Amino acid sequence: MSEPWNGPRLTGLSQAYWQACALQAAVQTGLAARLAQGPAELEDLSRELALSRRGLHALLTSLLTLGVLTKHGGLYGLHPEAAPFLTPGAPRDVSNAVLHMADMVCDWAKLEQCVRTGQPVERERVTHSVETPERAHFYRAMRDIARQQAPGLAARLGLAAGQRLLDLGGGPGVYAYTFSAETPGLKSWVFDLPGAKEHFQEEAEAHPEAGEVGFLEGDYHQDELGGPFEVIWISQVLHGEGPEECERLVQKAGRALAPGGRLFIQEFIMDPEGKGHAFAALFSLNMLVNTKAGQSYSAEELADFMALAGLAEIENLGATRENSPAGIIKAVKRA
Ligand SMILES: C[S@@+](CC[C@H](N)C(=O)[O-])C[C@H]1O[C@@H](n2cnc3c(N)ncnc32)[C@H](O)[C@@H]1O
Fold it and tell me: How far apart are CA 288 and CA 117, in angstroms?
């Protein structure tokens, strides 16, 4: 049974951003990375990281109270359970996701305005070919999340030797590389904007066992996708677009499929009746703040895009992993 609603619980919910900002500051200042190397005293941390004693003391005490840190004999350390996730470069490191969240805080503070107008926050948007620290955080966060989601999926999707797979909007290509590594003889391509290429190239090192994986530079708004492909994987792309663009894009994918080929869409699946994962619903607000028309979609809406593209055998495969807000919908192009 969920906790009853009352004043303190509602106030706590409205203050939840304090906790978020405290964790983000720990990563942004380098405190978390420093403590990942070993415990340290306040004075040493203040000197090494060039942080004010007053600010650092307040931050350390907050993180200690939240349980992210421990303190023994004056030495602050990462809680042993949190450490693997806050150690830069560790297999389950979430630092880039934390930095990506930090990059969005100022825009989220203008949510009221976005809800009133239905428009994203007005600000200059840098073109996709220019690398900025924010863009690096974004691609690395996508990479780190995908590294947790992708292993083992190839068998579930029925990937096989001799197939050609397109990872549309694949970014750093974690899915394409992992699918290829788990399916000898599979040929994969990532289709993405030019700005994603260096992250795709960087990711190659992490998958020495992957076979043939290529990068197709393009803009899915303008360009056809090539093909034919036996499999097209569209992961976490549609939520960045409005329904009309999603229809167009899924139709484009349908055209690029070989007869009998399969399309898989992975998305944060939203339940309009509020029974789904809260993350998927909140992600729709994230798209409101950040994009012109993006949103989270329900399983039915995603299935409708596939049906409108003339695809058949549409099936909801359920959550990508247990308790994951992401799910997968499959469809087949008639032979
Ligand atoms: C949220 S990320 C998802 C990355 C990856 N598929 C995953 O699931 O981790 C969305 C991806 O779509 C790409 N993208 C956005 N607009 C695009 C466009 N017009 N043409 C091609 N790719 C685009 C972005 O560069 C990014 O890599």
Answer: 10
